[in-house]
Every structure is written in C-alpha cells, then in structure tokens.
Amino acid sequence: MLDQFAQFFGLHSGADVLWLTIGFGGQFLFASRFFVQLFYSERAGKSVMPIAFWYFSLGGGLITTIYALHLGHSGLPFLMGQVGGLVVYVRNLMLIFKEKARAKAEIPPAA
C-alpha cells in the first residue's frame, strides 16, 4: 500500500516524501487559519479577525512559498499566489503591533 502511495505521487526517495510533507503541512497550516477565525468569531458572537489568523496565514504562506520554490518552474502558480499574500500578512501584523504600542503608550501608569 505504501509503495502504491509513493508510486501514485511519484515519490522516489525520502527527500521526495519530506518535500511532499512540507507542502501538505504548509497547506494545512494555511487552511487552519479559517478554523481559527471561526473559533474566535463563535466565541465572540460576532465576526472577528484574531491575530492568530495572521500568524497562521504567514506561517502557511511561508512554508507554501518554500515548497513552491523547491518545485521550480512547476511551482510558479503557487509562488505567484503566495507572494502578494505574504506582503499583506506582514503588513497586517505590523499594523497590529503599531496599534498595541500606541495603546500602551496612552495608558497612564497605575497610581
């Protein structure tokens, strides 16, 4: 059965299995962001975008980008789909940290 799986996916070495695992791992992490967002929204009783969403997006996007680079020219569609998103994820995290720093600076010290 394992041989059939390897043959179906064109896996010829342990490195092939590792790269396939990395690719699936990146996609799993990337897709998990929606479940994280759903969990926080259900808990809040309204639609919210938790910071964890952006971390899952960034982590999954980076891993998928690395996998796409490994694939070479055949990974170009993956690569093109991820690069723009990575910019958005990083920028959103920067804005979140900037807002937290601003809010922290506005809080007067406890008396």
Automatic annotation (TrEMBL):
- A GO CC term attached to the entry: membrane
Please tell me whether the keyword Transmembrane is annotated for this protein: yes
Record keyword Membrane present: yes
- Which GO molecular function terms does the record list? lipid-A-disaccharide synthase activity
Keywords carried by this UniProt record: Membrane, Transmembrane, Transmembrane helix
Q: Where is the Lipid A biosynthesis N-terminal domain?
A: 22-95
What residue intervals traverse the membrane? 17-40, 52-70, 76-97
Gene Ontology biological process terms, A to Z:
lipid A biosynthetic process
| InterPro entries assigned | Lipid_A_biosynth_N
Quote the protein name from its UniProt record.
Lipid-A-disaccharide synthase-like uncharacterized protein
Q: Which organism is it from?
A: Rhizomicrobium palustre
Organismal lineage = Bacteria, Pseudomonadati, Pseudomonadota, Alphaproteobacteria, Micropepsales
